[in-house]
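Subgroup meeting minutes
Present: P.N., E.W., G.H.
Scribe: E.W.

1. P.N. recapped why we're keeping a running log of single-chain structure predictions: easier to compare across weeks, and new members can see raw inputs and outputs side by side.
2. G.H. added today's entry (95 aa).
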Amino acid sequence: METETQKRVSARITGRVQGVGFRNFTQRRARRLGLTGWVRNEPDGSVRLEAEGPREALDDLVEAVHEGPRMARVEAVDVDWSDAADEFASFQVRR
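Output recorded in log:
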């Protein structure tokens, strides 16, 4: 069996994603999946996500942010993949 490679996902989520609990939703899901990184609101109204961990868990997180919390309305999720840099100790909400 192949060892799972650590990857990094960078995503910009647009739509009604601020003021609806999106960052806390993302943090809870990322921690449940064992991922590290951060999520924050951007000045343009989008949410930025940086996360590292196994590709399968990252795929689950990306799928989750396509829906978001109940009050959110996600219009787009722009995703970039790269190799993990192992720079995060946990998953945090940045302000």
